[in-house]
């Protein structure tokens, strides 16, 4: 039996924070309890977590508050995760170097660096990018979940690329169910 894939704790931490920002702490706590995720109240993870915990939260939120609100929460969660990465995980010297480069080389170097640690957000899934015109990022989620999860990655990549590559970066997302996987394709106008 294989070891469950793990992802970073920000998937949960920032989703709870985004839920609180949208609904307020009291209502967010009520929602978390109602969807069977109350154990995270005042007890957020501090280490890598099994990806199943994040996907369980996504699925439960979607059933409780619907696709649109869950998509908004997950996009905000991704943006918050990007801010955390910029503050704590991505070295300042690397950020300075990438910001000095023109858009396409900055995109390529940044995504190359991200690909080395993609397992921290893709879990059992796959991450790739191509330098087409426009460049594209693909995340394939293999853990059983729903397409709405792609909004987490959309928020993360948009915020990171706007900060490091070009503040005018826009991403067109194509998130769809393909058999037993979720294919998240992001066309990046940098």
Oligomer: single chain
How many separate domains make up the residues? 1
Q: Per CATH, which architecture?
A: Alpha-Beta Complex
CATH class designation: Alpha Beta
Helix content: 40-55%
Number of strands: 6
Strand content: 15-25%
Could you list the spans in which at least 5 consecutive residues all have pLDDT below 50?
Answer: none
Structural class: alpha+beta
Plain-language structure description:
The protein has 190 residues and is of the alpha+beta class. It has a single domain, classed as H-NOX domain. It has helices at 10-23, 25-34, 51-89, 92-100, 103-115, 119-122, 150-164, and strands at residues 6-7, 49-50, 126-130, 136-141, 170-178, 181-189. A four-stranded antiparallel β-sheet has the order 3-4-6-5, covered by helices on one side. Strand 5 (170-178) and strand 6 (181-189) form a beta hairpin. The mean pLDDT is 96.
Topology:
Elements: E1 6-7, H1 10-23, H2 25-34, E2 49-50, H3 51-89, H4 92-100, H5 103-115, H6 119-122, E3 126-130, E4 136-141, H7 150-164, E5 170-178, E6 181-189
Antiparallel strand pairs: 1-2, 3-4, 4-6, 5-6
